[in-house]
Amino acid sequence: MEIAYSPIGTIYSPFHKLTSMPIQPLSESSAPGTVVLLPEFAPGLKDLQGFSHIILIYHLHQSHSYALTVTPFLDSVQHGVFATRAPRRPNPIGLSVVPLIRIDDNIMYVDKLDVLDGTPLLDIKPYVPEFDSPPNFRLGWLEGVKAKLRTTNSDDRFG
Amino acid sequence: MEIAYSPIGTIYSPFHKLTSMPIQPLSESSAPGTVVLLPEFAPGLKDLQGFSHIILIYHLHQSHSYALTVTPFLDSVQHGVFATRAPRRPNPIGLSVVPLIRIDDNIMYVDKLDVLDGTPLLDIKPYVPEFDSPPNFRLGWLEGVKAKLRTTNSDDRFG
């Protein structure tokens, strides 16, 4: 079974290389950018400006292979790829929750981007903590490395 | 540009029809179920059991068309589809954050499912509040209907 999607737009960021990128939106090096929807989809943005944060779902277009166990940027031991946010995955789908600054027609100005310039956009959803933010959680292997979340950038291991 | 993905597994739930389903994981009618990964991907689950919640990304396989403005289950006025979580979207990609109960080989036992039985699974990511849960937010049109989030089920409008 093959599932086919077409990009609905493009994400523009200051990041042109897979190395030295922020690894997540909260990284200190994440940056403002734009999400440009194809003009024909612009009516789908009606009332989105009321939400402070949006969920971007995108195709990790520079991810051309994967391994089932990976050593993520934040750790020195291997974990299953589904227990990490590493970009090289069986289906290279990326997910970022970012602040929405404003919308002009089909252009969303956002902050805290952690994606490559030119990333194909697949979907936009409003961020709703009642849906997306469970109140009690455990972080598995990430508990031990939480202090590094904000300051770690990417290197070439997933290039 | 067409992007092709292949399912990595299947989500099994008690919900066999698009009507009368929970509309989100926090609905009172959401239910336990299983996420069955294709056996060849099982090594990718290493260390996932340490996380209390996982993000399921899936193909909304019963969504065969879309409209750019929709009247969502929770409201009586139209909003842009990207300002809603309605299942009929240009790229019908679904996203649910669910509690992970336990893992047996390639089978994840989860709770609070809000998806149809037999839904094709595209990706699994660990839920990390530092990445996925911004501290301050506004909810747009959903602010006025928050009280209905837990008790509203689906009807046939997206069937």
Provide key terms for this protein.
159 residues; 9 strands; homodimer; globular; two-stranded antiparallel sheet; mainly beta; 6-stranded antiparallel beta barrel
Describe the structure.
Two copies of one chain form a homodimer. Chain A is mostly beta strands. In chain A, 3% of the residues lie in helices and 33% in strands. Chain A is built from one helix and nine strands. Chain A has one helix at residues 129-132, and strands spanning 3-5, 9-12, 31-37, 53-59, 69-70, 79-80, 93-104, 107-113, 119-126. A six-stranded antiparallel β-barrel of chain A has the order 2-3-8-7-4-9. In chain A, a hairpin with a 2-residue loop joins strand 7 and strand 8. Chain A is globular. The two termini of chain A are 28 Å apart. In chain A, 48% of the residues are buried. The model of chain A has no long low-confidence stretch (mean pLDDT 88). Chains A and B meet through strand 1, strand 4, strand 6, strand 7 and strand 9 of A and strand 1, strand 4, strand 6, strand 7 and strand 9 of B. Strand 1 of chain A pairs antiparallel with strand 1 of chain B.
Largest sheet of chain A: 6 strands, antiparallel, barrel
Would you tell me the overall average pLDDT of chain A? 88
First-last Cα distance of chain A: 28 Å
Q: Element order, helices and strands of chain A?
A: EEEEEEEEEH
Query: β content of chain A, as a range?
Result: 25-35%
Q: What does the radius of gyration of chain A come to?
A: 16 Å
Oligomer: homodimer
Q: Which blocks of ≥5 consecutive residues of chain A have pLDDT under 50?
A: none
Q: Tell me the structural class of chain A.
A: mainly beta
Q: Name the helicity range of chain A.
A: under 10%
